[in-house]
């Protein structure tokens, strides 16, 4: 495997957080409207910035409601963990000299709220969050920003994610994409690599550069 940089999405890829995020949103909407929205109707929010989700839902006071949502996520966050085998895989990649990064639709505040407790933050270089690029996934801006900061060429980078927006972001950046089958809800998402487990990253075949 000759990728020099492996960049990860966070939710649904590094950490199993989907339930907490959606339940936090469900709680927030119930507090605002008194109506319990079915979780399936809220799954569209996965992989896009929180503010975009709230705009789609027609929320007016986006900043205040986003803060309310963050607090509700924290109420459900006790069960959030790294996916099995992820920490060992990240440590092995780091030991091989692979540069690790993050491109996420979270804000820095959202990321910093819980990511340090997983014990892997020190393994990563640039962490590109929602406010770090002029556009969001599926646009290429976040991955282009990562390459700008690191000097990496597209052919040297692999992006690992679980949603169609992750795949499109990679494609539009000229970067190979690996679909995290352990976290995705859509097995048909286009990808150069389809990974059954995090450890499969250690066995990727060499590519023609």
Short structural summary:
This protein has 209 residues and is of the alpha/beta class. It has helices at 18-33, 50-56, 62-76, 86-95, 108-114, 141-150, 164-173, and strands spanning 5-8, 99-103, 127-128, 157-161, 176-180, 193-195.
Q: How is the topology of this model organized?
A:
Layout: E1 5-8, H1 18-33, H2 50-56, H3 62-76, H4 86-95, E2 99-103, H5 108-114, E3 127-128, H6 141-150, E4 157-161, H7 164-173, E5 176-180, E6 193-195
Parallel strand pairs: 1-2, 1-4, 2-3, 4-5, 5-6
Helix pairs in contact: 1-3, 2-3
Summarize this structure as a short list of keywords or feature phrases:
209 residues; 7 helices; 36% helix
The global form is globular
Residue runs with pLDDT of under 50 for 5 or more positions:
none
Query: CATH superfamily of the largest domain, please?
Result: HAD superfamily/HAD-like
Category from helices, strands and their pairing: alpha/beta
Mean pLDDT across all amino acids? 92
What is the CATH class designation of the largest domain? Alpha Beta
CATH topology of the largest domain: Rossmann fold
CATH architecture of the largest domain: 3-Layer(aba) Sandwich
Major sheet size, sense and barrel closure? 6 strands, parallel
- Helicity range: 25-40%
Strand percentage, roughly?
5-15%
* Alpha carbon gap, first and last residue: 11 Å
- Order of strands in the sheet with most strands: 3-2-1-4-5-6
Helical run tally = 7
- Radius of gyration over all CA atoms, rounded: 17 Å
Q: What can you tell me about this protein's structure?
A:
The protein has about 210 residues and is of the alpha/beta class. The chain has 2 domains: about 5-15 and about 80-205, Rossmann fold (3-Layer(aba) Sandwich); about 20-80. It contains 7 helices and 6 strands; from the N terminus they run βααααβαβαβαββ. It has helices spanning about 20-35, 50-55, 60-75, 85-95, 110-115, 140-150, 165-175; strands spanning about 5-10, 100-105, 125-130, 155-160, 175-180, 195. It has a 6-stranded parallel sheet with strand order 3-2-1-4-5-6. The longest helix has 16 residues, at about 20-35. The model has no long low-confidence stretch (mean pLDDT about 90).
């Amino acid at each position: 495997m000759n990728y020099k940089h492996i960049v990860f999405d966070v939710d649904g890829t590094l950490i199993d957080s989907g339930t907490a995020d959606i339940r936090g949103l469900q709680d927030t909407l119930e507090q605002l409207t008194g109506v319990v929205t079915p979780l399936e109707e809220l799954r569209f929010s996965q992989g896009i910035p929180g503010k975009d989700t709230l705009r789609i839902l027609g929320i007016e006071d986006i900043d205040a409601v986003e803060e309310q949502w963050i607090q509700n996520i924290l109420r459900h966050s006790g069960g959030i963990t790294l996916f099995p085998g992820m920490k060992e895989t990240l440590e092995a990649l780091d030991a091989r000299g692979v540069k690790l990064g993050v491109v996420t639709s979270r804000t820095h505040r959202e990321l910093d709220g819980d990511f340090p407790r997983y014990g892997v933050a020190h393994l990563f270089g640039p962490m590109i969050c929602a406010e770090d690029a002029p556009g969001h996934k599926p646009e290429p801006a976040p991955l282009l920003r990562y390459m700008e900061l690191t000097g990496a060429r597209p052919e040297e980078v692999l992006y690992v994610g679980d949603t169609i927006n992750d795949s499109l972001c990679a494609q539009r950046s000229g970067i190979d994409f690996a679909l995290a089958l352990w976290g995705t809800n859509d097995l048909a998402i286009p990808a150069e690599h389809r990974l059954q487990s995090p450890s499969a990253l250690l066995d990727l075949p060499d590519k023609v550069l």
